[in-house]
Amino acid sequence: MRYLIAGLLALTPSLALADTLDKSDSAWILTATALVLFMTLPGLALFYGGLVRNKNVLSVLMQCFAIACAVSLVWLVVGYSLAFSDGGAANAWIGGLSHVFFDGIGRDTLEGSLPKSLHGLFQMTFAIITPALIVGAFAERMRFGAMLAFSVLWVLGVYVPICHWVWGGGWLAELGLYDFAGGTVVHITAGVAALVAAVVLGRRQDWPGQAMKPHNMTMTVMGAGMLWVGWFGFNGGSALAADGNASMAMLVTHISAAAGSLAWVTLEAVKFGKPSALGIATGMVAGLGTITPASGFVGPGGALLIGLAAGVICFYMVLVVKQKWRIDDSLDVFPVHGIGGVLGTLLAGVFASTELGVFSGYGFAKPEYGMLDQIGVQALGVVATFVYTAVVTFLLLKLVGLFTPLRVTAEEEAQGLDIALHEERGYDI
Known about the structure:
The chain is mainly α. 68% of the residues lie in helices and 1% in strands.
């Protein structure tokens, strides 16, 4: 018995250092992965599909579907490796090639308490929804082939590097940037890319003179509901464990969505006389996007204020972009996701403080950090993400434009992309 105990003690250090599979964590992240994919297919597809005119509904659904397929393969071949493997001397900026084609990842390979294959799949769903969000900016006027080529290049040129900076051990991770589930990685990148794409492609014909109302608000509200439910996997799953952090992330996500919705429709009622279904759905998305970077670091009180701020600020930014800047961001991707991502990333540095009473969070990234230190890191992350995304997105659009027209012809746009590009109709009525 003495020798048995001694042997077990000798093994203890190695056991303590080894990753160990946790079935409850794995079960939760398996569920969260399905929820995040559900956000894109069908959630985002239906949300966007209802917002365009009926002659373009299938083109939007097609774009979301095709992006899901193409990005999945890009992630398999090289995306996951560049985002989450060790890049050696270049690791501050980009990962390496050790997991190309998921090489070295078998059924028993672990990432913490999870199968590494599950970690790769979960992160794949984030890579899918981010370029799909951009679709809303150029809806009703971009060629399908150009859209798909741009999306693939954009994932490799923008999403993957920034994902590595923040979540893969890159320079922003080293500084202690707080981005729990994608304020910078997902929402700022998608929002800024959307703004650039809208400017490069130009306005839709007859915009803003002609009203281009959503053709099916029922579809949009259904999609919005799917996004709300799926966001529990988006934010709660980013804890990568079935624990209190995941449950708190889900709670604050829900609170922020509710607050954002009510803030938005209240402003609508005051400014325009009536609240709208479009407003309550858009306010929800604003609340969800804004809480995303902060969701693992703030409490319910902070989430309430973040959601209210999201509803108010994103509401007015929609008016600024469309009425002041006269930019045809068709489905308001930049003012909702881009501005929401910026706002949430900055406010994470505020409401993570443990000294705000009922509005307190769970502390800053490093023991020596105070609020101003954390806000400084958050602001640096916002600026770096914003500038890098804008420059690379512009260059990629110009590059794709050298090989194929980015925009459909005036005749095709008037006919509608469903018939012009796909020879199909969404409705035979």
